[in-house]
Amino acid sequence: MTTNSYFSENTLEELIEEIQYVYRSDDRPWIIGYSGGKDSTTVVELVYKMLLGLPDWQRHKMVYIVSSDTRIENPLIKIYLSKLNEMIGEAAERDGLPLKTAIVQPPADNSFWANVIGRGFPTPKVTGTFRWCTDRLKINPSAEFIRDIIKKESTEVVVVLGVRKAESIARKRRIEGRELANRVMNRHETIKGAYVYNPIVELTTEDVWDVLFQMDGGQTPWGSNNNELASLYSDADSGECPFADMNAGGQTQTCGNSRFGCWVCTVVKEDKSLNGFIKSGHRELIPLADFRKWLISIRNDEDKREKKRRDGTVYKMKTGEMGYGPFTWEARQLILTKLLETQEKMGYELISMDELKAIDEIWDAELDLSRRTLVELYKNKTGQKLPWYQYKKPLIDAETVAELERLAAEHEIPFDLVRNIILSVYQNKNFSNQRKMREALERLLNQQWLHHEVLEEIEDENR
Ligand code: SF4
């Protein structure tokens, strides 16, 4: 035991007693962020044991265990987490505990693939700029879950996290009168009506492993063995979401401290956990590492990026060249093609049906006059027809599109503009108020990319 160990001055029983005291002190349901990592496993295990030690009548409020699945979890972690989530839920039912488990995901139309392949969002940068993923994939789905419980149960809630201080200073924690529950809880920084309780904040890393292995030799009350967790750690080396620990105070980490980053994370130069797994023998993950490397390599390829932003604005880079916008539609099709190839090689689902449907809808709304690009691409790559394959009818037949392209070229009108106008008219045609359509068309015709050369000329003349 190290000198700053929490257990040099406190016992495990006292820690469970404290958790029990806080649990019994009010009616606010608990929500535990469970990532499958060692810290949140410790919290779940302590809370589970605490509940087991209470008589039935004192188990007066619900404990929700929430795991976040970004939809791009490392397959090994996803399989482990789903299994454990199910085991905990079943064991709680068997033991008659007021405990439910849930897995939250970003909605299909706001997933990593919906944004990259659907809308063409550039992948988050190694430098951490343009990092649109953490909120969308990790923070928001858990926050939504918490807000839902607050609404459904018309009450405040306590979010219980496995956040620890980097440097723990051992101190004797005593249950001193009724103040303790208030003393150990903070208001949640972003969710109104939520409080945060970090029961293991003072524990060192060694303490946490001690708890996981001291209690029943690593055997959990739900029937798994923490050896499995320990071997995931040693296989993965260390590779966590580079931003998951930003708030060491644990205020916004309602999704739990994500120990393992997303498999496709483009923010880290080297995905340590993915490479660690491969090095320790999980060769089935090699296609994922290859795909990730390729995706990073095309990020700044000028042929694969629009020269205007999604809202039609443009900017110049330091070099004087036009700045990049989203991935071109061709690049998005290429990313989807490669992703489907990787999925095939792995024999493991990397993109779900509902994400494909969401992307198809985004393409229909923003790009695809034929409305068949995605379903045909999928069929060509996999030999399978998507369930909605036969229902997709072109908005405009191929011959007419070809003629429009010819006319646009003849009159030097960018075809993107023609296409955007057609799609906009189509989307607004059912509104009885014509103002909506007029405004949408005005917006399209006034977009900066159409006029920036003229504007530049005027600026030059005035100089
Ligand atoms: S692991 Fe990477 S891709 Fe996933 S949320 Fe964190 S920064 Fe984004």
Number-wise, the strands total 6
Side by side, the strands of the main sheet go 3-2-1-4-6-5
Helix percentage range: 40-55%
The number of helical runs is: 17
Main pleated-sheet profile:
6 strands, mixed
What does this protein structure show overall?
The protein has 17 helices and six strands. It starts with 11 loop residues before the first helix and ends with a helix. The longest helix has 20 residues, at 75-94. It has a six-stranded mixed beta sheet, with helices on both faces. By secondary structure, the protein is mostly helical. Helix 1 (12-24) packs across helix 2 and helix 2 (38-52) packs across helix 7 (205-214). The protein is elongated and about 80 Å long. Helix content is 47%, strand content 6%. A hairpin with a 6-residue loop joins strand 5 (185-187) and strand 6. Iron/sulfur cluster binds at residues 70, 124, 131, 133-134, 137-138, 241-243, 261-262, 265, 267.
